[in-house]
Amino acid sequence: MLFIFDMGGVVTKPDEMPDFFNWLNLTPQEFFTLCTGGSSNIWNAFESGKLSIDGFWSAFNQRSRDMRKDIPEVHGDIYRQYFHPELNAGTVAVIEVLKKKHRVVCGTNTNASHYAIHEERGDYALFHETYASNKMGVVKPFTAFFEHILKAEGVRAEDAFFTDDSAENCAAASSLGIHAVRFTDADSLFQEWEQWMK
Asked: What's the CATH number where 166 sits?
């Protein structure tokens, strides 16, 4: 069997980065509205690898100037200062048990900055393979994201399991026939998949 884990909010604890948004003088909702609105979705472009780190922040700066004058201009890789994810020990324990008998991979929406930080920390070493949106050129919840993983792994949808803290992403996986479980906590996930750990 193939088990696919989301990274943020599942393998790592939610990192809301309040200091990051305070520095920008934006709420998280305002930040994502700025990034996803208008004529193009620069956040999806960033997470699918179509925009580099510099390209994303350049586009962000242009949009923020048009939106409000109190948003500071961003230079360099600002995520380095504010993104400090913490592993969820319970989820890591589930992964370690599953890996003894099954193929376990990471399927994550991420950008070049977040990817580099996780890689440097060794977080992706928990998995047999990592499928990252910025490397694949497609993001969840597009079904092409999951189809890419299934094809690369040579696994049928009915032989794959997926967990994510996003209901939308779980619904997309389920639409292909993947067994999807919305993540709430590691204990609940263990109970959902206990039969596969014996």
From this structure: 3.40.50.1000
